[in-house]
Amino acid sequence: MTTVTSPVTGRVIGLAAVPDPVFSGAMVGPGTAVDPVREPSAAVSPVDGVLVSLHPHAFVVVDAEGHGVLTHLGIDTVQLNGEGFEVLVHKGDTVTRGQAIVCWDPAAVEQAGRSPVCPVVALEATADSLSGLLEDGEVTAGAQLFIWR
């Protein structure tokens, strides 16, 4: 089992509320999403593992069980070309849950015309493999979002 925690502090809104059909339709996998507080902060790793993909706007950590967890910082933020994001680690690094991965400013993302909502997705999972899935409520970075069985 893998406990997946929130990479950011904010309000959980669930994947269905994400303003992007790829995420809201769970096309990349099941999970949830967090609407972050609008202040500069670090997005942290939701699990212990290895960073197998790392971009200013998104990262994937694979844990010891082979579970890949995608954290996407905002919607269509790839179009910002890294502006407003500071990557703190390197692809291939071993990271721990709660470790800062990327510094960013959700308010600046919003001012640039993008949604700062952060999908947290269990890649290549099935919806029934997740339990305790949060769909609403306030969370702090590091709070449990779901268990991947």
Automatic annotation (TrEMBL):
Domain PTS EIIA type-1: 20-124
PROSITE patterns: PTS_EIIA_TYPE_1
Domain of life per record: Bacteria
Location relative to the cell: Cytoplasm
Keyword Transport tagged: yes
Pfam families xref list: PTS_EIIA_1 (PF00358)
Gene3D superfamilies: Glucose Permease (Domain IIA)
InterPro entries the record matches: Dup_hybrid_motif, PTS_EIIA_1_perm, PTS_EIIA_component
Keywords for this protein: Kinase, Phosphotransferase system, Sugar transport, Transferase, Transport
PANTHER family: PTS SYSTEM GLUCOSE-SPECIFIC EIIA COMPONENT
Name listed for the protein in its UniProt record: PTS glucose transporter subunit IIA
Source organism (scientific name): Streptomyces macrolidinus
